[in-house]
Amino acid sequence: MSRGGARPGAGRKAKDGQKRVTITLRVLPSTRELIRQMRSEGIRMGEMVDTFADAWASHKHLDASH
Predict the structure, then answer these.
(1) How far apart are alpha carbons 57 and 66 in whole angstroms?
(2) Exposed e or buried b for every residue in 28-57, given b needs 16+ CB within 10 A?
(3) Which of 27, 28, 11 minimizes the C-alpha distance to 19?
(4) 40 inside domain
(5) What radius of gyration do the chain's Cα atoms show?
């Protein structure tokens, strides 16, 4: 029997079934404050970025299928 380490299928599953990745970005302090306010209202930034990216891709007539 193996001990320790990652196990296939272990861990919390993504809400929508799609794997998420982490990114880091730099924004203005005023933007950071807006993000904090949005977060306090339950808006998740990852979902907001996904929505923005989908809208932009649609505007540019690009395939934004995830």
Answers:
(1) 12
(2) eeeeeeeeeeeeeeeeeeeeeebeeeeeee
(3) 11
(4) yes
(5) 17
H-helix or E-strand spanning residue 31: helix 29-40
- Count of structural domains, the chain: 1
Cα 31 to chain centroid distance, Å, stands at 17
pLDDT digits 0-9 by tens, 16-53: 778 888 999 999 999 999 999 999 999 999 988 999 99
Please give the residue range of the domain that contains residue 52. 29-59
Tokens encoding 12: 């919390």
Residue 49 lies in a domain: yes
pTM across the whole model = 0.61
Residues whose CB is less than 8 angstroms from the CB of residue 48 and which lie 6 or more positions away in sequence, other chains included: 38
* Structure tokens given for 37: 């306010």
